[in-house]
Amino acid sequence: MGPLRSYDPETIGSSISFMEVAPENWINAGGKKKQYLRYFTERFPFVCHGLSLSIGGPSPLDETFISKLGQFMDQYNIRAYSEHLSYCTDDGHLYDLMPIPFTEEAVNYVAGRIQKVQDMIGRRMAIENVSYYAAPGAELSEIDFINAVITEADCDLLLDVNNIYVNSVNHRYDPLEFLQALPGERIAYGHIAGHYNEAEDLVVDTHGADVISDVWDLLDKAYELFGVFPTLLERDFNIPPVDELLLEVQRIKQIQDKWNRHDRPLTDSTGGLAHARQSSA
Prior knowledge:
Low-confidence stretches: 1-6, 275-281
Oligomer: single chain
CATH class: Alpha Beta
CATH architecture: Alpha-Beta Barrel
Number of domains: 1
Strand content: 15-25%
Helix content: 25-40%
Distance between the termini: 6 Å
Number of helices: 10
Radius of gyration: 18 Å
């Protein structure tokens, strides 16, 4: 549990306003792991960001998991639940986020599954715009697909600014135009992260590097367009010392302060940190 201790509230002080966990890694936690989770959830607002719901997958939804998820959120006072607009199962886990075809049929299918999840957990969920590297069978643009799913499902949006940048390079579109076309009133909270430049025309979403200036600029523009919303820094590996990591969290706060006119509190949250994503944490 060493990484948990490095994020002790006495160490990070007021730098962190909320944290995020992958519910799959914590729903069945017991013993000391459960004690640590309770310790942190009593001191910070928490959100859940799922890894395995597979909202666009061909396999039936895991209703046992969804039921446990609702109980988990109640037990630890989790403020929001989000998942990727993708899929990761087909008679077994694929261990990657696969692109959903941008079609009207897929809109109807995914929206229906989102509605079912929302009914089962008794609250709205947020869907994240994801990075993708191919668009098989596309009949709609990415932005039209996302907007159609959100509208039909009547769900919220987890706005990942880095994913917009990554996709804009890989699929050659204007990231600002894409951002402007999103339904800002649906934003539950946001993500920002680093990535890896595989080639001049290929960027890979890794969450393993510092956030670059173009992505910071896009976050700044998102606040200008939509007002300030809670924003979480994702860092999954190559994790620097906590003091260095918190510098990026502080940068989120600095940009928020610039546009702090229409703050949307996740119980007064500003900059957040992805916390204990790995089951081995």
